[in-house]
Amino acid sequence: MAGHHLILGELVDFITGDILKDTHDERYRQKLARLLVEKKGYHKKEIEPRFELLVKAGKNKAIVKVDFVITLSGKACMIIKYGPGSLVTRYRPALAASRLVAPYQVPVVVVTNGEDAAILDGAIGNVISLGLDSIPSKPEMLKRIVNSNFKTVSSDRTELESRIIYTFEVDGSCPCDDTICILET
């Protein structure tokens, strides 16, 4: 089944060197990857693009992607979730993802449409800054994680957060969206 994006050809992923479909959304992701490395000081090996996250809601299961997971000192410390359009509508599923990509609460959550960004405190969900320029640099993140406790997420909370992502990202998604993989039960 074909995806729902206009395919403009192919491009080379800035982080991995993989060949990807060239879409408008992927161009924004590549712009974000370059920002993280060239302006924010992260090494490519500290950035995992297209992190696959298994989510469940009852018997329903799917794999959704977190655009970037940034790991420093052996801990996932920031996730970035891209999506076109309004940022506010993406806060809750991005926060849910920050509680599932690791067994602990990821401290910083970035929601972006490629032109703007909201940086959220993962533990409480408050917006701590706005704009692509305010995405924490590697030195800023290293200072932040010293004070982070990386609190373990309970299994009850994990189940609820998984349902939230499933509801936002999978239920009602376009059947031709090839960024979501609904698993047979």
Care to describe what's here?
The structure is a single chain. By secondary structure, the protein is of the alpha+beta class. It has one domain: Alpha-Beta Complex (tt1808, chain A). Helix content is 26%, strand content 30%. Strands 3, 4, 5, 6, 7, 8 and 9 form a 7-stranded mixed sheet that branches. The chain has a two-stranded antiparallel ribbon with strand order 1-2. Helix 2 runs antiparallel to helix 4. The radius of gyration is 16 Å and the shape is globular. The protein starts with 9 loop residues before the first strand and ends with a strand. The mean pLDDT is 90.
Features:
single chain, 185 residues, alpha+beta, tt1808, chain A, 4 helices, 30% strand
